[in-house]
Here is the input.
Amino acid sequence: MTIKKILIFLLIVLAQDFFAQSSSTFSRSGLGDMIYSFSARRVGMGDLGIAVSDEDFIGTLNPASWGRLNRTRIEFGANWNGLTVKQNGISSFYSELDFSGFAFAFPISKKYGAGGALGIVPFTNVSYKAKQNIQSIENYDITYEGSGGLSKIFLGGSYMLPFNVTLGASLDYYFGNINYNSKANFTQESSYDAEYNRTFRPKGIGGTFGLISPDINGALKIGGISDVRFGLAVNYISNLETDSSLTSVSTFYTDTIGISIVDMHVPERIMAGISFVAKQTNLFTLDYAFQPWSKFSLNGKTDANLRDAHKFSLGYEYRPQRDNYSGFWQQIMYRVGLSYEQTQYLINNSGINQYAFSLGTSFPIALENTIDIGLQYLIRSGDNSSLLKENTIRVNIGISLGDYWFIRQEK
Amino acid sequence: MLKFKLLFLFIASLLLVGCSEDPSSIGSDLLSQDLIDVNVLDSQTDSLSQTSSSFLSTLQLSGSTKLFLGKTNNIDEASILIKFQYSFEDTIKTAFLNNSLTIRSAYVELIKTYSVGTGSLDYTVHKINSDWSHSTFSGDSLSSLQFDAQDISSNRRVSSNDSVYSFDVDIPSVQKWMREAADSTVSGDKGIYIQPTSNSTKIVGFQALSSTVTTIPRLYVVVEKSGAYVDTLSFISTMDVSGIKATLPQSSENIFVQGGTEIKSKLRFDLSKLPELAIVNQAELTLTFDSTASLNSVTSNIYAYFVADSANQDSLSSTYVLLQKSGNVLSGDISYLVQRWLKEKINYGLLLVPQNNAETVDLFAIRGSNSNVYSERPHLKITYTNKK
Here is the structure.
């Protein structure tokens, strides 16, 4: 129990942005990098898993997945990103630790596929820093920094319809605080530094709707295969009311030189997947996600650096049969995943693509509790060789706790 | 237990390896929306239009620690008004009233603290007949001052080290003042008026009335009671002030700044070429000093005041910058003033005044905006950051 408390303390208290950056200046476009999953489990399997409906994990991409939960669950986690950025033979390494999300879910009726969930998860992430040293008029540095992103709070539930089709929906509240800062620092003491801050604070509602099919292996009748399911989920986001401000900061004044409320249109995200279990312990997933970022607009203006995003992912999980008599090593789960993403970034007419390989594992703390670790290696680059190239190692650590809550006491 | 410890160490190690490199230039070419750059706007190389002019107003010098006396090229008259305080013991007072006390001599001593110009100082001393107040008297008041035409001074002298100026005062005049002071039924005297003559070619400053300095103007009176004693009575100034009348030097090349007379100058640069959203990193104003047309006793500086009020552009605001003299230039950092012009979107320019305008009559001749030598015109160099 002490270890649990220490880990929970570490993850909650340290769930802040500690370090410099987790992405490159690609994330200046649109709303930054898309975040699909907050949990180490999904990270270890290629991020998606739209058709997976677990008894002991909370999926946040498809509300229909909450119908099979067998216990009330709390999950949260943190990401560490180690990023190497290269351009024109120069490379730099950055790292960042940040909160990756929190979810709480509870079963209502397993018979009716009814479950509820709420949580807070990041949706996009802006995180970059770049610095130029200029030696012309005077010797000075210009530092560009972007931070923040869009997050969502969700509250929803699932219900099983006839023919075992599970539907789910959540009401989502989107909010964010995205800052872009440009600062000139002079080495000469007699010159005053200068800084511009552009801030966007979007807020608004949206909804996520999903379904997961019944096991169709009953019709297919493939030997050794079970739980063959299709899943579909759609994220709809209404136009977000966005407070926009531009502030100049000098030694003498902090002056808001532009302030307005504008509309931000974030395009819907559509995801589909299939999953099946082979020989009871091997889960396979294949997923696809699409988001037409070319339709993203801020104050009616689209972003020329954005295009439609597509993501394909393949995941595998080895999940041993667990019981109270299994030893520690016999209860460990292993995962592996691959993904390819045509990202939303279109920089200098060159599309930026991402390849990712992931590994994951879950260590049991008790029968229903696990510490999950996901390890991901990502390569992101464009066709144009002069564009920067990112190599990222991402470590996601999560804790998944399950217990019986809301049990009616027998009289 | 070991496995949990290992896991704990793993998490802790992630935190520890989170140290990042300083940001590099990688990817900065993708930040077109946020790019900023630093530029220079130079009034000379960028041919900024500018205007400058000088004007004369009257300065009330009651706050000055100096009493100015003399004349220069543009100061027609710097005069002194002093009223002494006569207080003495009852035995002296009775003796005056009984006419048993004889005044042997009387003289005034003034202690020099400042001088500007070369040549001589000559003056006359007159008995004032009209009321005046040091708190309201100024150069403009000189024309309405009523005084006796008779010069009541004689034996005007200067100590060998040029530090003490003194003159004898006509004895009947002193006797009358003292009798009036001793007899409360007779109205008191109104003081003396020390006026430079046309022979004066310089201005000398003397210590004025001060509660903390002992070298204030004094009247010494040597009295004798026949067969009893000879004594020297000392009376200090109880009210004094200078009045200065000046004319504005005429020049197409220069603008002028002078204390005592309150000759001020306005200087304005057209900064419409400076982007509205610019942040001023440095703004240096450099003025070229014309030593041949200036009159300076010591190295002194001038202030550049922010002009805040469109209706009253000659008044001094609370915002100013010191322009320090070094060689033949006066320069200072006016970054804050330029930033304020940008922020308030109003630029009434600068008002140039001497650093101690009540303590000096130094005349600064500064190359103006119409100087024939372009490089000697007021020079403003602004380094600024701008959002692209």
Observations:
- The longest helix of chain B spans residues 2-16.
- Residues 153 and 169 of chain B are 5 Å apart (CA to CA).
